[in-house]
Amino acid sequence: MKAFADVFDRLDASTSTDAKHAALVAYFREVEAADGAWALAVFCGRSIKRAASSTQMKRWAAEVSGLPAWLIDECHGQVGDLGETLSLIVPDAAADAGRQETPGLAAIFSEFLTPMTRADEAGKRAMLVGLWARLDQRERFVLHKLISTTFRVGVSRGLAVRAMATVSGVDQARMDHALSGQWPITSEYFQSLRILGKAGVRGDAGEAAAGGEPPSLQPYPFFLAQQLPDEVDRPDLLEEQLGPRSRWQVEWKWDGLRGQIVRRDRAAVWSRGGELLSRQFPELIDAAEGLPTGTVLDGEVLAFEGGRPLDFSHLQTRIARVQPTGLLFVDVPVVFMAYDLLEIEGRDVRGEALSTRRAMLEGLVAGLGHPLVRTSEVLGASSWAEVEAARGTSRARGVEGVMLKRVDSEYGAGRVKLGPVDAKALGAWWKWKIDPFVIDCVLVSAQRGSGRRASLYTDYTFALWSGPQRGEGELVPFAKAYHGKGMTDEVFVKIDQFIRGHTIGRIGGAGIRLVEPRLVFELAFEGVQASARHRSGLAVRFPRVNRWRTDKHASEADTLGTLRALVRS
Amino acid sequence: MICALAVRGYGVVGRGGPYCPNMGVAATGRPDLVITTPAGLYCPAGGFHIDPWAKVEMAVTTHAHTDHARPGSTRYLTSQTGKIVLASRFGPQFAQAGHIDGWAYGRRERVGDVYVSLHPAGHVLGSAQVRIEHAATGETWVISGDYKTEDDGISEAFVPVRCHVFVTESTFGLPIYRWKPQGQVFAEINAWWRSNAASGRLSMIACYALGKAQRLLSGLDASIGPIVLHGALRSCTEAYRAAGVSLPATGHATQETARASGGRAIILAPPSAVRSAWAYKLPRPGGEMELAMASGWMSVRGTRRRRALDKGFALSDHADWPGLLGAIEATGAERIGVTHGAVETLVRYLRECKGREAFGIATQFVGEGGGDEAEQPADDATNASEGAGEGASQGASEGANA
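Above: the input entities. Below: the structure tokens describing the complete assembly.
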């Protein structure tokens, strides 16, 4: 655990990718293979079953520290992160007790966190309290990060993959492939990855591995598109930057769940995050069984009915629920909207041109002839101006905009780092999303942020007028947001000062401050729908702060009626 | 007029509600020995203020940090070593003219109707707790000023003083603040410096000019490389030396000394300077410079990250949570006044969990938005040019000295 806490510190302290890479490489080279496997799983964002809830952990920390709950809440408010707070208040082992050997990362999982998931409350408590006493504060903090299952240290999966590729001396794409899907978290597998590039080791690392999902069902790393920069989103600029329209394949940008269908000896559906979704979407597995062995499709799982996609929230209800197998009727129908072909007849075709892959894809899907597997429409729009016009119809079609993919592009891995727009880069895929909705609303309450902004009030609740006209009726909260392009550190500090000086009330426990309704912000969001759970009766999707409208008085903010009108648009 | 100061009488039950003007009345019914006024704490029976923030006739000064020692008063009373430090801040003529009295710790003299004595607070060189005993009734108050309970080896070590009423600071009055022994922190700092020096990168460490800088000097391993100081740290460091504190040799932090060290040097600078033009102009032999800060606030990760530091060392000249509670116990006081920091929290804890009679005392640094944030790090840490929370005003004036 000490070595893992050390590498955590080095990653945490640095914002330089090179420094992080160097820290990870050094760690992966030296680490015990069993510990390395777990570290890699953590960095790759593999989901780990939660060993204890934060409520339980807080209660036990209160018991062992003898502190009242309100005081722990005060501390939480100051620190901003509950896991860190608890790590700071739990008593240290007596200095003279002679600390036992700190367990390694693999032992933390195999002897504590995994058994804890199966233990009853008393068992969980005993294990965690026992472990606390064997760790120092820094290690306890890292432990709480591991338990919280939202382990973020500024290490992306890509960075971990790159570091492992350096350690083993193979290229990144090969390591990426070996770390796709549910690879086994074992010392043998980690060791096989570490020596992947050495002479005498051949083929897929997974072949050497035992346990876990059979490597034969592994997906490929996903190729990701980049946001089209604002500076070029006009037909004439597109012509200038991307070249002739004919060089590009244009598709709709679906608002679903990116996934790969892998059909080898069996069929599987994988999410972009490397989660197996087969149990959530058994009907897609049934459909995929009809594909020839040795096929991998890339596409989007969509809630789909009557020839058009349903709102993403419908799909969420499906993701959250595991369907009983053999279910004939599903309340939310889904399709797999295929847009790329990565493997055919067992052959990796990612290096072929998109146009070639597309032709093969169309043939395959037509041959399958299953209503739940479709090909994503290629737009005919013959000029950039027509593409722009088509993009304008996105909202009515229930899509998020359009995708631009070079017809000669390979299927790359991850997100290709490009300049502002580098159309010469062969791999370029661009997403050209529709402009978000915007609305002017009033800041009515605030909470402290977390992490870097733990001591600032940066989590805001916004409200709209309930009356028929602006400035009439009361202000009804409708959305929370804590980020957006309008929120620089400087703005955060200014707003934080305003909040501290204009608090008109507090909501206990949660540390919420009600503030004088004076500041107006332009909020951007992707969609809005009726919601029984919100007091406003409306829920907005992905709200973020566009800008601070210092030019507007609170009475000039928009009304709920304005927002409601958007539900139908 | 006293009311106008918005003293928040935290939880002083039955005494005029939450905005009660005064601290409370002892069970004896006698008037308080020390009260709050617009100029700060005042002892009517002795006719003097303690750490006033306005110009007064006589200022008993616990220590020389600028949030406790403001220039402009007619006379100052502080400890003997405190006088050396205070004089270096105010300018030597001030001291020579006899405006500053320097008393040995423990010297007890009658001032008006009270006896006054000063006792080591362990915060910085010359820092003192003020003991005030009423000549007629014998009632005794101790005003702690800022203090720490760990002996840092260069300041006079904290001594608990028995009293009826103890007025304590509470800068780090939350149980998340528990310091490691300073030897352990120095070992970490030296390991960090050694590793930077080995890779030829300069080390810069942000620290407050008075107290923290000298404490760091006392703990740095001078065999690793040269130790150089930003200009704002020199006069305080010289004051320590003048008072007989032995510190390793130091040079001036300049482009020449930084370059000449080949990246082995460690630079001590006030928080306000580490992102200034001065710092940017320093050469970077190893490509980059490693930046750290030594402050109690560094024990929280968010504070380290917000300042974009490579490293944060939790080293404080204030008492941590166990230190505060231990000091309060050791005084045997019947009533506890809490000021400067986590006032509301500590008062509630003492009342509810320890069954103590505790009350809050506002300071000038309490903003209208509520006292509890006044001393927290974010508010000033985010004013990019400003010092960190630990003695917000320290950083300010120290930067100005640069």
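Note for the figure: Chain B has two domains: 3-177+317-364, 182-313.
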